[in-house]
Amino acid sequence: MIEQSMLILLGIVAGLLTLGTLAAQIGVRTARTEKGVEVARNLKARMRSWWVMAAIFVVSILVGGTMTVILFGISSFLAFREFITLTPTRRGDHRALFWAFFVIIPIQYILIAQERYTAFSVFIPVYAFLLIPARMAAAGETREFLGRMSRIQWGLMTCVYFISHVPALLTLELKHYEQSNATLLFFFILIVQVNDVFQYITGKLLGKRPIAPLVSPNKTIAGLVGGLAVSVAVGAALSWITPFDTWAAAGMAFCIAFMGFLGDLTMSAVKRDIGVKDYSQAIPGHGGILDRLDSLTFAAPLFFHLVRHFYATST
User: Fold this and answer.
1) Which of 60, 192, 288, 308 falls 20 to 30 Å from 75 in CA-CA distance?
2) What is the pLDDT of residues 92-122, one digit of tens each?
3) pTM surpassing 0.70?
4) How far apart are CA 143 and CA 153, in angstroms?
């Protein structure tokens, strides 16, 4: 049976998606400037993709925790594949990559499904970090060894380890919180997406001063402030579905939104270094899987550990 709080959340998400779709349709028809038309068309493409992604995510939540873990495991696999596809590798890297794709990623998510916090929290940062360079060294290719090794390790950290903290929220036992952890996970994803949407809209319409023009000229001070402000307001308004009081929920939303921005900015710097605009074209209007998950990379581990430290029954 679906909890009342989850039904309300689903209604809010459906309402926001509907309003966004209508705004995009109206914008395409009424925009008078080239910039306005560009924003409206981009938003329209994004809304179509958001509907599909929201439906997949909601189904996984409703089916159960194991399905959610599998969904994020597949997402990590695809994101890591996009990242590795765009980075130069050599023949000697192939066996290390085999271990990364078909051993390390499944084990990380199996440990989360089994709720083994100590194991999943150290598996990639310790054991995978030792295995990857050792396996690459055994292949005997030393040319650009440090760079090749670092790229694989960075990909595992961002695409797998960091993102795996999202379904790990389902494993926490929280004080005085009788609602399902799925609601808390939904809160986290909603804040991340609200921040992304309003950073984009306010940045496009009001932004003039880019924060890091060589990294991402579309990320402006106005966009950052607009995204943070709306995220904090939404977080505070939804405090009743979380274990947080109003001020704590606002603070958590601020942390999620700000770290989401830093994650997005960092992964944009990686794309600039590689020389691409998007990691792939898998999702119309959004780029690749990793382009959609980049905001989760920094936000997920911080939010997980804040919740675990301050609200879990045991640490």
Assistant:
1) 308
2) 899 999 999 999 999 999 999 999 999 999 9
3) yes
4) 17
